[in-house]
Every structure is written in structure tokens, then in C-alpha cells.
Amino acid sequence: MGRSQTLAKDPRGSHLRLYKDVYSTPAWQALSFTQRALYIAMRQQLMSFNNGVIIATPATLAADGFTSSSTLHKSLRALIAVGFIECVVKGRMTFGGKEASLYRFTDEECLDIPRYGLKARKASNEWKRWKTVDQAAAAIAAAHREAKRPSHPNSKAARDTSKIRISNTKGSERESEHSFSGSHSERCEIAPIRDSNDGDASESSHKPASVLGSAQPKRRGAEAVHRSTFEHQCTVATPVLPKQPLRSGQGRLTLVPKSIDE
């Protein structure tokens, strides 16, 4: 092929390259399939001039299946831990909204981007420092442990554990004397409750023979209690009037109550 001849553009457009020296490293083997998919999804944003302004958010990667922010952040931590990418600009809140974090691939050089305060730098290739898969996996696990923050007292985990209350078995001196603290009537022993259906047999044992011999209708259950209570009220509420003289009326006797003042 002469120098005057040039290669035609690829009719299929741009493509992604996954180099063998990256694929065969312990750092790549320590990644999960989700973390490898994130690497490829972020790699398609890379051009010859924008290394360092790669964005990884659920909004930009939703088409690639990264709709969960927790899964995305976990995968980003793994790629940073093994050295495939580096966060060059930390995301922050601004007056107009949010600014996303910016990343660069360590196997490619980075150009000057004054808008974001980035300076030109060569490829650093931090992913080459791992000699075994276990070392790379240990680095990923350590990054996940450092990312975990202590639970806040008002968090859901703290509220769930607060529902279970461990009782204090050591009570006070007063509690040791009795199972509970109450009034005198509450501390007294409760008298046994007699069954109303068996009341005839128990009452007959204490009645005299003259009473037992008389035929009386049996009272059972709530009817007996109601009638006995009604009779008691009538006995208590009925006043005892003095004896009154009988006066003759119109062919019949009339009971005239005598005044109390007399």
C-alpha cells in the first residue's frame, strides 16, 4: 500500500477496544460481570480528547441497565479500587442543581481541559500493580468496607433494633417482695369464684333441714343472681312504717298512714 493511499472509513462507525493486556490481568478477573459491563458502558464515551470528563450517572447509563444508584456506586468503587478509572472531579451540589463526578481512564493519556481544571497527564496504568486475583479482590473488599458509614440513630436499621427491648431481670427491693406494685386490695389474694351452676349443691350443705325439706324452685345462672339482688334491694329500700289504726270507711277498711309528726 502506497503512502498516497488512505484507508476508508469504517462503514460500521466507531468501535470499542478491549485490549488483551487489560483483559488478561488479575484486576480484570477480580471484577464481577456487572462491574465489567460498567467499564464497557463508560468506555463508549471515550474519544481522543475527552478523557477526564467521563460521566457515570443513572441518567446517562440507564440505557445500559444501570438504573440503581447503589449498584452503580458499588461498581464504580470496584473500578477505582483496582485502578482502571480515577475520579478527577468530585460531584457536588450547586445553586443551579448538581454537578456530576468526572472520571478518566488510567490506560489513556489526558489532555488539558481548563474548564474543569484538568492538566495534561500520561497514562498511569494503576491496574498493572496487582500480581494475583486475590490481591485485587482484597482491594475491592477494602474499598467497600471503607464506604460503609456508621448507622445514624434515626436510621431504619437503628429503629428496627430498637423495637426489641431486653428486659432488666434485676428488679428493685420492692419488686422482689411482690411480682407487681399495687394497692392493698390488689395485693390481697383473690377469692375463688363459685360457679353459679353448682350453687344449689353448695348452698344446700349449709341450710337447715327445715329449709331443705321445703319444695322451692331451683334458681340457676344469671336469673338466680338477678333475683337475689332484686330481693336484697327491696329489703334494704323498703321503709318500716309504724303500726296504723284501722278506721271504718264506707263499707270497707281503709289504711290511713299516720303522720310522722304525731
Keywords:
35% helix; 7 strands; alpha+beta; Arc Repressor Mutant, subunit A; 262 residues
Account of the protein in words:
The protein is α+β, with helices and mostly antiparallel strands and 262 residues long. The protein has a domain at 20-122 and 133-145: Arc Repressor Mutant, subunit A (Orthogonal Bundle). It has helices spanning 20-23, 26-29, 33-43, 69-82, 133-147, 156-162, 173-177, 184-187, 199-204, 209-213, 221-237, and strands at residues 54-55, 85-89, 92-94, 97-99, 102-105, 246-248, 253-255. The strands form 3 sheets. The chain has a 3-stranded antiparallel beta sheet with strand order 1-5-2. A two-stranded antiparallel sheet has the order 3-4. The longest helix has 17 residues, at 221-237. The relative contact order is 0.08. Mean pLDDT is 74; it is low at 174-180.
